[in-house]
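Q: I'm writing a short explainer about SCP domain-containing protein for a general audience and would like to include a description of its predicted shape. Could you first generate the structure from this sequence?
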Amino acid sequence: MRRLTLLLLFLHFSTSPSYAFSPSLASPINQTIYNITKTLCWGCWAEAVQFLYAHNVVRATHWELPLAWDPTLESYARWWAAQRKGDCRLQHSFPDAGFQLGENIFWGSGSGWGPLDAVRNWAGEERDYSYAANACAPGRVCGHYTQMVWKDTRRVGCARVVCDGGDVFMTCNYYPPGNYIGERPY
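A: Of course. Here's the predicted structure. Afterward I'll give you a sentence or two in plain language.
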């Protein structure tokens, strides 16, 4: 029994745990994983959770179904945010009409703005929306809010970028879109 114990101790300490069972980093599978993961946005999941959670809290106040996160909408939002990185201009991704997605955009001075700030800003437009009149208060904006709570919207994807000048641009895309003239959001 003593010999077996000594043999096991010898085997245990004679192999390095960091290399004993780990495959080579040069193997094709691990190289592929490395190449894929180095291009991922590691903070994106945390931001996605913040965007989604904040949207669904606002929707819950009107008993609307929660939105689901849509990676395709997120990809589109990331593409548009990348386009705005150079100038941080508060501009929608589509020209005038005919766009098949809803879209909210946000700009903040300085790099400290996060997803909760953008959603809070859009949700704050609720005070300027009259459900009875189904309209914004005169001279006020409320379309970001109504898109967030639109009864038929089911999916959202968003992105945040710190622009070259140090400010922040954020955008969220929604499907199906909302804000149809003459229809109420909920």
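A: For your explainer, you could say: Residues 44-93+100-175 form a domain with the Pathogenesis-related Protein p14a fold (CATH 3.40.33.10).
Q: Perfect, that's easy to follow.
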